[in-house]
Amino acid sequence: MSKKFYITTPIYYPSASPHLGHAYCTTLCDVIARGKRMRGFETFFLTGLDEHGEKIQKNAQAKGVTPQQFVDEVATRFFSLWEAMGISNDDFIRTTQPRHEKTVQKIFSKMLEKDDIYLSTYSGWYCVHEESYWTETQVGENHLCPECGRPVEQKDEEAYFYRCQKYTDELLAYYDSNPLFITPESRKNEMVNTFIKPGLLDLCVSRTSFSWGIQVVENPKHVIYVWLDALTNYITALGYLQEDDSNFQKFWMDEESEIVHVIGADINRFHTIYWPMFLGSLGLRKPNRVFVHGLLMMKDGKMSKSKGNAISAYPLIERYGVDAVRYYLVSEVPFGQNGTFTPEQFVMRVNQDLVNNYGNLLNRTASMIIKYFGGIIPEYTKASDALDEEIDALIRATKVAYETLNDDLQVTAAYEKVMELISRANKFIEEKAPWALAKDPEKKPELEGVMARLAHVIYAASLMLSPILIHKADEAFSVLGVTNPSYEEIDSFGCLKGNEIHKGDVLFQRLDAEKEIEEIIKMMTGPKETVAA
Ligand code: ME8
Fold first, then answer.
1. Is 50 in the pocket of ligand 1 (CB under 6 A)?
2. Which atom of ligand 1 is nearest to the CA of 233?
3. Is the Cβ atom of 12 under 6 angstroms away from ligand 1?
4. Which whole number is the average pLDDT over 124-129?
5. Does any ligand 1 atom lie closer than 6 A to the CB of residue 519?
6. Which ligand 1 atom is at minimum distance from the Cα of 302?
7. What is the pLDDT, as a whole number, of residue 524?
8. Closest protein CA for atom 21 of ligand 1
9. Ligand 1 center to residue 296 CA distance, Å?
10. Does ligand 1 have an atom closer than 6 angstroms to the CB of 230?
């Protein structure tokens, strides 16, 4: 039976167009999901939109449309971007879908029945932007939201509360027995020291001051707090408490299934404190991992809709192709750390890694196989020296490291290993000098071995890169005459023997750095429609 893997992105707010930061998180998840599928894991990859809440209602009002019309319009921009980025999600959840709304109502009722939720009055400092209440100490003398720095307002309202204290011990015990639950670890310390140790206040989980949300069935003037609504998407999309719950049984209930939520640090508190508690109320298992990735920033700070400094993925895709953009996102910012988008680095990545390293290896190898063997990939002869042995060992070691690092969600590092294999193979060409071997008929078996090894490195590397390079890896396979690429064949040295090389155009065009940097700068300062407002 194959192993199961469930991965989710945050469900984004459709309050404005998606920017490269959203594309970053979704692409990384897509690369992880594609990699797992390729390796035979039964995989479910979920993304979606978080469509309720006061912020959406206010944005819709400002535009003179209904909240549903508003989110429907923005949703199309997310669909188009994910299509353009080649995102391979298995489902797309929108929190206004009846399947979700009905289930959230059932979840709320279950929590009420269990007395995990009770009715009381809330009085506190409220941040409209974050949709969060804060205590006097948290907002400080200037009454500013500790999360976003905006002014907060004093509010009193009848509200339902979730009993956090009831589940705090269970939560801490879960942290202790699952050291990888929150990664990187610094993110766990932040939660324990800043939020849990000082004592968790009961969480206010309903609102009466606006209506754009899911109604509490037992008390319809209340709508369910947007975070209780949003977090449960991870199980409502799988069919929890619905007629067909087969995906829920398969990907959530089965202990063999690994559950991974990928999020930004801004929403860590909700995912690693409240979400596991809610699951505790429902008597459900908790996710294996919440991976907190870093932010993609611009030189002047965090890329954000409100700052208007965000770059859209479209012009980059249009000019450089989706594979180059996907590769940049995975390789440039080590997964888990913050990084800065710069045009210089974008061009450098494409030229150095894709043109000079990967594309060049393919091009040189294909030309030499045509020249020395009439385009037919020769036999993978026994290693003739330590260099050949090193290449054989490196192909095996790279596959092992690639799997281990990917399984540990060290995605950037995993792909770096593949690039190192390619670099080593380029150096191997210089060291072996096939053009010299070709002059000596006695060296023919060695030359065959060199060319077969190079072809196999390209095959192995293209398989491992295929979760990122969703089109270019296929082009490389077709150059190698492979019609049915299979990940298992990485270990089958010699499997390409007899294939005919079909040399096409170069995989990636070299970029004129000066010119392209200017082009990208134009995209960054370009018309507002292409940049999230
Ligand atoms: O918080 N760099 O939605 P949201 C990298 N609806 N990632 C970025 C980014 C950047 N500059 N900007 C945003 C919400 N992100 C809630 C989530 S989940 C149950 C509900 C990514 O539209 C990052 O993953 O504000 C961040 O956590 C997420 O978008 C926030 O998206």
1. yes
2. 19
3. yes
4. 87
5. no
6. 11
7. 80
8. 22
9. 11
10. yes
Please give the helix or strand (H or E) that residue 44 lies within, else none: strand 42-49
Q: Which domains does the chain have, with CATH numbers?
A: 4-293 (3.40.50.620), 341-489 (1.10.730.10)
In tens, the pLDDT along 289-345 reads 999 999 999 887 877 656 667 788 999 999 999 999 999 999 998 988 999 999 999
Instruction: Summarize pLDDT for 76-98 with one digit per residue, the tens.
Output: 999 999 999 999 999 999 999 99
Contact 35, 467 (CB under 8 A): yes
CB 74 near ligand 1, within 6 Å: no
Pocket test for ligand 1, best of 27, 95, 266 (most atoms within 8 A of CB): 266
**Interacting residues of 389 by C-beta distance below 8 A, sequence separation 6+:** 383
Question: What pLDDT does residue 526 have?
Answer: 56
Determine which residue's CA is closest to atom 16 belonging to ligand 1: 12
The residues, any chain, with a CB within 8 Å of residue 22's CB and separated by 6 or more, are 12, 78, 81
Please report the pLDDT score of residue 528 as a whole number.
Answer: 43
Residue 288 DSSP SS3:
coil
For a ligand 1 pocket test, name from 9, 29, 50 the mutation site with the most ligand atoms within 8 angstroms of its C-beta: 50
By C-alpha distance, which of 56, 122, 125, 130 is closest to 94? 56
Pair 184, 261: CB distance under 8 Å: no
Q: Are strands 182-183 and 289-293 parallel, antiparallel or unpaired?
A: parallel
> Using one digit for the tens of pLDDT, what is the confidence trace for 470-489?
999 999 999 999 999 999 99
Residue 443: per-residue pLDDT: 97
- CB contact set of 320 (below 8 Å; sequence gap of 6+): 346, 350, 511
- What is the 25 CA–ligand 1 centroid distance (Å)? 8
How far apart are alpha carbons 448 and 380 in whole angstroms? 7
What is the per-residue pLDDT for 264?
95
